[in-house]
Design brief:
The complex is a heterodimer of chains A (223) and B (453). Chain A is α/β, with parallel strands linked by helices and 223 residues long. Chain A folds into 2 domains: 2-119, Response regulator (Rossmann fold, 3-Layer(aba) Sandwich); 126-222, Orthogonal Bundle (Arc Repressor Mutant, subunit A). Chain A contains 8 helices and 12 strands. The chains are: A alpha/beta (223), B alpha+beta (453).
Chain lengths: 223, 453
């Protein structure tokens, strides 16, 4: 899952980023509104954490512009202004959730997980595909009750596929969502990761769709 | 009574009236005294002139008889000289002789000073018969063909003249009093009419203080216009100052929140003694910030066109439902399109946001929000808003303590409680009312009464 953090306070954005990285998210950071808007406009993110009080361009304007331009990724707004009027205006501008400062990063993570899950159309924090179970809260993966140990990159990839279970996901899309923007992208590594995951899961849930990408699906007869 | 009067004379009306009346009284007094003096002088000169003519005619008819006795060649024409104590007298005296007197003097005798001879005419006032005061014209005369000196006196009673003067003075005083009364009345009218714009200005200011107007509007007399403008400018400046102060407080509080987040996150994972202390203290800082921010935000006072609440309630429900999304609470809104609140949007949001948020937190499945306009109070129209949930509710005997507890906790530890303290503060500021009771849905019902347009 790739997340954009737009926060001008260095210390806070560092804390947020570190926690996100610890939770196996792919993180891009912008320190002012203009950069933040540009990144959100050009890169595909699974979620955006957006501070409203930003230099150059304020958060609400960024959000309005994104929504006007048809960008639909879930946006979590961070704001020091906690009056109900501010909340209403933030949501009016197109935010999906808000968190008022000061906050504990754990709360941010919990809300972010729920936000990403909901935007992918999943209502439970447990993502399921046949015997494969991915708990977004604990980051644990099990197959038929057996725990599977995945590396950070493997988890990111599987998690993205599980969130978009049933849909065909291209290699480029996967690359974009599991690497940050500075990474030297090579779609071959994706293939390597997918093969490793298949081996570790030991059940056939990840199918290759020739020329298009991968699809996560569980059918009884493939077992 | 005297205290009241002193107080009245310190008012603008009192001052104007006092000075005007003082001047009127002084002017009327001077005028009255002058008139009285002139009249008296005129009446006296008239009397003196008559006496002088009588004296001349007395001298004209006087002769010395062959026996050497003074007599009149013919009687004086005025009958009053014959009637005793009539008020008209004459007397001719010669040194060492019995004076020759008018009959009217009867047994009274004028006592002229016979030691000095003054041949010119002079006037005097002397005592007469029967306690009368007499005006006397007198001179010494040497009749032709003799060398004897006679002292001629003719006198008239001053009582008539004095009565005339007294009557005149009485008339004068009554006329002047009437004038003073009329002038005073017209002054009172004039002052109250003239000061009416000032009283109007006072009422305008009261309206502003009551929050019904924002500025002093209207056409003012040219001399009050600058005052009205100055007051308006002052209020604008005041608003700006308050605004600026509020913005500064807000900015400061908001600026503190980001570093506070960092501090809280830094110590979140650690649990040694120092970290716990820092955690506690930073929580206090947060609570203080919230407490003061919320109170600084209360705007209060109605103005403008009024806030249509349906749209606001819909937006607030949307905002609240973000935090209760996991529970799938159903929010039902029943509000007429025309329902409006006479006050600031921020205050309305804060009150209803808190109440709906509380209801959403406790509700099992649904929250009902309904609004209607109350028509029973004609003096000031109100709307009633009910926020009800189907949660566990609060026992009847504890409902009353909710506000108290919220309030008490809120004052000791700001930011805690159910947010009800701030709700109550705002509602009271608008002269409204908020109460809690058991809801038919099973949970708690908050019933709000807020002013409308």
């Amino acid at each position: 899952m790739r997340v954009l953090v737009v926060e001008d306070d260095e210390s806070l954005s560092e804390q947020i980023c570190q926690s996100l990285l610890d939770a196996d998210y792919v993180v891009d950071v912008a320190h002012d509104g203009e950069e933040g808007h540009f990144l959100g406009d050009t890169e595909p993110y699974d979620a955006v954490i957006l501070d409203l009080g930003l230099p150059v361009m304020d958060g609400r304007s960024i959000l309005k512009k994104w929504r006007a331009d048809g960008r639909t990724m879930p946006v979590m707004v961070l704001t020091a202004r906690d009056s109900w009027t501010d909340k209403v205006e933030g949501l009016d501008a197109g935010a999906d959730d808000y968190l008022t400062k000061p906050f504990i990063v754990e709360e941010l993570l919990a809300r972010l997980r729920a936000l990403i899950r909901r935007s992918a159309g999943q209502s439970s924090s447990q993502l399921e595909c046949g015997p494969v179970l991915l708990d977004t809260r604990s980051g644990r993966v099990t197959v038929g009750g057996r725990a599977v140990k995945l590396t950070a990159q493997e988890f990111k990839l599987l998690s993205y596929l599980m969130h978009h279970s049933g849909k065909v996901v291209s290699r480029t899309e996967l690359t974009e969502h599991i690497y940050d923007q500075d990474f030297d992208r090579d779609s071959n590594t994706i293939e390597v990761f997918v093969n490793r995951i298949r081996k570790k899961l030991n059940v056939s849930v990840i199918h290759t769709v020739r020329g298009l990408g991968y699809q996560l699906e569980w059918t009884e007869d493939t077992a | 009574m005297t205290g009241k009067l002193r107080h009245f004379f310190k008012t603008l009306t009192g001052r104007l009236l006092k000075s005007a009346i003082m001047w009127s009284v002084a002017a009327l007094a001077v005028g009255g005294l002058t008139l009285s003096f002139v009249f008296r002088a005129y009446v006296l000169s008239d009397v003196d002139q008559r006496l002088s003519m009588l004296l001349d005619s007395m001298v004209g008819v006087s002769e010395i008889s062959p026996e050497g006795v003074l007599r009149f060649s013919r009687p004086l024409s005025d009958q009053r000289f014959m009637t005793p104590e009539s008020g008209q007298y004459w007397q001719i005296s010669e040194k060492g002789q019995e004076p020759f007197r008018s009959r009217s003097l009867w047994d009274f005798e004028l006592k002229p000073d016979m030691n000095r001879n003054i041949f010119s005419l002079r006037y005097d006032e002397v005592a007469g018969p029967d306690g009368q005061t007499l005006r006397v014209a007198e001179r010494d005369i040497i009749l032709p063909d003799s060398d004897r000196i006679f002292h001629f006196q003719v006198a008239t009673d001053m009582a008539v003249v004095k009565a005339a003067i007294a009557r005149f003075n009485w008339l004068l005083v009554s006329a002047l009093a009437l004038i003073l009364f009329t002038v005073t009345m017209s002054l009172v009218l004039q002052v109250s009419y003239g000061l009416r714009p000032l009283r109007h200005l006072g009422r305008s200011l009261a309206q502003i203080r009551a929050g019904k107007e924002r500025r002093i509007e209207g056409d003012w007399p040219q001399d009050l216009q600058p005052l009205a403008q100055e007051i308006n400018a002052l209020m604008e400046q005041n608003e700006q100052l308050v605004d600026r102060a509020r913005t500064h407080v807000g900015n400061l509080a908001h600026a503190l929140k980001t570093p506070l987040s960092v501090i809280q996150n830094e110590v979140e994972k650690a649990d040694d003694e120092r970290a716990v202390r820092i955690k506690t203290q930073s929580r206090h800082i947060r609570e203080h910030i919230d407490h003061h921010l919320k109170r600084a935000r209360i705007a209060g006072g109605g103005s403008g066109p009024g806030l249509l609440i349906k749209d606001r309630l819909e937006k607030l429900i949307k905002a609240v439902s973000v935090s209760t999304r996991e529970k799938a609470i159903q929010y039902n809104l029943n509000c007429p399109d025309t329902c409006c609140f006479d006050g600031e949007k921020e205050d309305f949001d804060e009150v209803l946001g808190n109440l709906i948020d509380n209801a959403g937190k406790w509700a099992a499945h649904r929250v009902n929000i309904s609004a209607k306009t109350l028509s029973d109070d004609v003096r000031r129209p109100f709307i009633e808003i009910r926020v009800e949930d189907d949660g566990p509710g609060v026992p009847d005997d504890e409902i009353d303590t909710l506000f108290e507890r919220g309030r008490r906790l809120d004052e000791r530890i700001p930011g805690t409680g159910l947010g009800l303290a701030i709700v109550r503060d705002i509602v009271e500021m608008y002269g409204g009312d908020v109460r809690l009771e058991a809801s038919p849905l099973g949970g708690l019902a908050a019933i709000l009464k807020l002013p409308t347009k």
